[in-house]
């Protein structure tokens, strides 16, 4: 929960949890405004549930739902009325805080200069600069406040934006694609739509959970990474209208494009496991898949001297399929080095039927499974957690497809959550039946809309969802967009490359590099690094080289070991 003040009586935030309300009340907030409609995502607390808890804590609660792209004059008027009549500080929230900020901004039209409204919103991390004309009062407009105008206030729609190339997502794939495009054609008009203020090197979270990296090493400010010349639209996407070459933002603005790139990443569905969200970060339950939880993993590893440690892996696809077992290996290595391994029972519970999907790397991994005396339980999916009782339940599927439930007690539980495409992708015309952006696995061009490309974790390509895959895909998408815009028949093709540096101990890594069909695709000669063995050279790459390659090359369009091969279509 991150409260962002707009002024002394109003803060905004992203979606709050039921447990947050007690902390909010302790912070002195007196009134809650919920601007998010019920049912936008699974696991989202219902308004009536939040209202009941707010009342118990003595908080005033108001439900003013704003549909993405559907903000009305009445919404603005209702928001302003609550603000006027509220006693004490107010917290307004939606999915990211953007809709709440936009409601406040529109309520201030005629009361504050447009530049002042935009500056205040910017200080809270919300870019409303494109709304200046909406927030400006002209000489022939009266200056009644929103409260005085009420629901009869004349409607004003946000202006349409338009860019040559629009990229949805400012993560690894999105920024790398923008940088690669500008490397090829610096004059391009590119906009990136991204609501977050911070950017993360997610492959480093395994190292944080293993006590190797400090968490700060994996985080930087988003604005520092945006390529020079790229317009950053700090907002969330609500819907796509590919037939009209437009994207609708959560604040109601429309963004037109000539070419669209989708790179929004995927979403972690912790809420699909009963009881999990309530206990994450406490009771011995953790996950390296979140920045704020990876340090807790290391704390648990250091503190565990005896007992049971369970590591889970859900159904595929997931980002970095090796990450669940990386956590197990680094934990086991610490317990071995500190002399307590013989008192710890390690269990690896995997929905799948093998330790790793590419057979060439299995023998090296099994050596470490034996070293740490880890018990492998295949066909087991985590379905429920009781944190206070430190008990987990798994659905077990045998070879005949028969299902049963297994109950396991734990002292430490490292969870890899089920994962899926973002909800706004699943519900869009860009998605295939499984919810992923439907693209050709070689060209990364959309299978229906020729001016749309997709890459990264949200794409439908059957490759491993890793940062290394995005590093290879970005130059391919950039090349193919330029070729298409220039009428060139050349094409760049993706071979499914992905890499998973499996940290089997502190000081050694099994560098798994492979493409479609499990084909081995080593990026360096075998005499330098034999990827089917655990080597110190691969650890040096993981520990020292790859973070630098990420920050200083990949995100800046320097295509180290990633230049695409070009062929004639």
Automatic annotation (TrEMBL):
Residues 3-109 form the Beta-lactamase hydrolase-like protein phosphatase-like domain. The keyword Membrane does not apply. One of its GO terms (biological process) is sulfide oxidation, using sulfide:quinone oxidoreductase. This is Sulfide:quinone oxidoreductase. The keyword Cell inner membrane does not apply. GO terms for molecular function: FAD binding; hydrolase activity; quinone binding; sulfide:quinone oxidoreductase activity. Its cofactor is FAD. It comes from the Bacteria. Residues 164-283 form the FAD/NAD(P)-binding domain. It comes from Litorimonas cladophorae. It holds the Pfam family BLH_phosphatase. Keywords: FAD, Flavoprotein, Oxidoreductase, Quinone, Transit peptide.
